[in-house]
Amino acid sequence: MRSPILTGTLLSLTSLMLLGGCSGQGNYTREGVGLAKQRMSFLKSATEWEMGRQAFLAGDLEKALEKVDNSIEINNTVAKSHLLRGRILFELGELGSALKSLHSAEGYDPESPDTQYYLGITFERLNRPEDAYTHFAAACEFDDYNPVYGVAASEMLIDLDRIADAKAYLNGLPMSSDNAGIRQTLGHIAMINRDPDSAVGYFRDARLLAPDDTGIVEDLIHAQMLSGDFTKAERNITSLLKNKDFIDRTDLKLLHAKALMKTGRPVDARTIYQKMLSMDESKSDVQAWTGLANASYMIEDDRTMRKAASRVVSLAPMSPEGYTLWALAHRMGGDNIKALNSINNAIQRSRTDASMFAFRAVILRDLDRTGDAIASAAKAASLDPMNRGYQNLLDQFKAGRFAAVETVTE
C-alpha cells in the first residue's frame, strides 16, 4: 500500500506533466492555425487574381479591376497583382493610376520584363519616348530572347530620330538574324533611309521566317515597287489579292494596276481601274480616275482618257493632276496650244514639280518656241538637280538651238 504522501506527489507530478503537455500542444496548434490562415489568404488572393485575369482577357475591365483590388487587399506584396492592375487601368485610360500600379509591381520585382514592357507602353502613350525606350530596353535586358521587347525599344529610338542607333541595337540582339519581327523592323529602317534595295532583302528574310504573315508581304511589295522590281511586286500582289481578307482592298488594287503599268500591261491595268470605278464606293476615287487616264493614254484610248481627265478636274479642281492629264490628251490629239494652256494651269497649282516644267518644255519645243522651251527645261533641272534626265533634256534643247543658229549662219 502506497503512502498518502507518495500518492499525492505522483498526482502532482502527473498534473504538472499534463499541464506542460497541454501548454506545448496549445502553442503548436496556434502556430499551425496561423500557417493555415496564411495559406488560405494566399490561396484566396490567388483565386481573386485569376478571376481578375480571366475577366481582363474577356474584356470585362470593371469586374477585372474589382477582383484584382480584392486580391491586393488580401495580399498587397505580389508583383503580378499590381502588374495586372496597371494593365487594366491602362486599358481604362487612367494612365496616371496605371503608372502608379506598375511602379508598385516594379518595386516588388524590378527584374520582371513584363512590368518593364508595360511601363514602356504607358510612357509611349504619354508621348514620353525617352522613358518608354528606357523601360523597353530594360525588358529586353532581362529577356533578350523575346523579340517584342527589342523591337519596341528600337521603335522608340526611331521616334527619337536615332535611326542609326535603332539599327545597331537590333543587329546586336542575339536573335537578330533569326526573327521575322526584327528583320521586318530593319526593313522599315532601310525604307526610312531610302534604301529600298536593302529593305527588299530584309523583308524577304522576314517572309522566309514567317511565311504566313501577310503584313510582311505588304512591306515587301512596297519595297519592291520602290526598288523597281515591278514584276515580282505584281506577282506578290496577285497572290495577296487571292486571300479573302484582301480581295476588297482598294489600295492593293490601285497598286496592282500601277505594277501592271510598269510591266508594260496597260490594258490589264485599265481593266482594273474600270472595274473599280464601276462600283459605287469607288466612283469618286481620284487615284483610280488618274490611273485610268494614264492607262488609256498608254494605249491611245483618247475617249476614255478625256473622260477620266475631266472627272479628275471635277473631283479635285485645285490639284494639278487633272490639268496635266488634259495637257497629255490635247498633245495626243495634236492640239499643242490647248496642251500648253492645260499644263500652265497645272503649274499654277504646283510650282515646284519639276516634271511639269519638263513637260511644258517639250510642248514649247513642239510649238517652235525654243527659247521658252530651254527656260522651262532649265527650271525643271534647277528644281530637281539630282535627276539627270532633266539636265539631259536641257542639253538637248540647247544643242538643237545652237545647231539651228549654226545652220542659218552657214
Describe the structure.
- By secondary structure, the protein is mostly helical.
- The protein has 21 helices and no strands.
- The chain has helices at 4-58, 61-74, 79-91, 95-108, 113-125, 129-142, 147-159, 163-171, 180-192, 196-209, 214-227, 230-241, 250-262, 266-277, 286-298, 302-315, 321-332, 336-349, 354-366, 370-383, 388-409.
- The chain starts with a helix and ends with a helix.
Helix content: over 70%
Total count of helical runs of at least 4 residues:
21
Oligomer: single chain
The profile of the biggest β sheet is: none
How far apart, in Å, are the first and last alpha carbons?
A: 165 Å
The beta-strand count equals 0
Shape field: elongated
The share of residues in extended strands comes to: under 5%
Q: Kindly state the mean pLDDT as a whole number?
A: 89
| Radius of gyration based on Cα positions | 37 Å
Poorly predicted runs are: 13-23, 403-410
SSE succession: HHHHHHHHHHHHHHHHHHHHH
Briefly note the structural class of the backbone: mainly alpha
Strand-helix topology:
Blueprint: H1 4-58, H2 61-74, H3 79-91, H4 95-108, H5 113-125, H6 129-142, H7 147-159, H8 163-171, H9 180-192, H10 196-209, H11 214-227, H12 230-241, H13 250-262, H14 266-277, H15 286-298, H16 302-315, H17 321-332, H18 336-349, H19 354-366, H20 370-383, H21 388-409
